[in-house]
Amino acid sequence: MSSRIEVVRRVSGRRRWTVEQKLAALRDAFGPEGCVRTACERHEVGSGSIYTWRRQAMSGELTGVRKPIEPAFAEVQIGEQLALPAPTVAARSNGVIGIELPSGIKVSVDATVDADALSRVIGVLAR
What we know:
It is a single chain. This protein has helices at about 20-30, 35-45, 45-60, 115-125; strands at about 90, 95-100, 105-110. The chain is α+β, with helices and mostly antiparallel strands. It has a three-stranded antiparallel sheet with strand order 1-2-3, with no helix packed on it. The longest helix is centred in the middle third of the chain and has 13 residues, at about 45-60. It is elongated and about 90 Å long.
């Protein structure tokens, strides 16, 4: 009787990977016909390392070339306020007022709406 024995080797401790080894694993994992699971088995590395290396490669950290930091704020200049055409108001037969702003926004209110509140809402929507 012949029996089959499978030896599974595990590396204990921390391993060191060169940039070339990491890039080869990434090509196997994410290249054409790539598969993370297959790359993990072939290169004997965990999937967490593969995804960490991918993030580092995308940021430039893996190869030592970092992308310049993009600004978090943009300059804003306030110009003259332009006069907008007045909104059109159409009364409907059931007591509902339909207001269509030049931007295409439509607002429907009934006759009991607070005029000051409506004015503030239209002012905000017309910007």
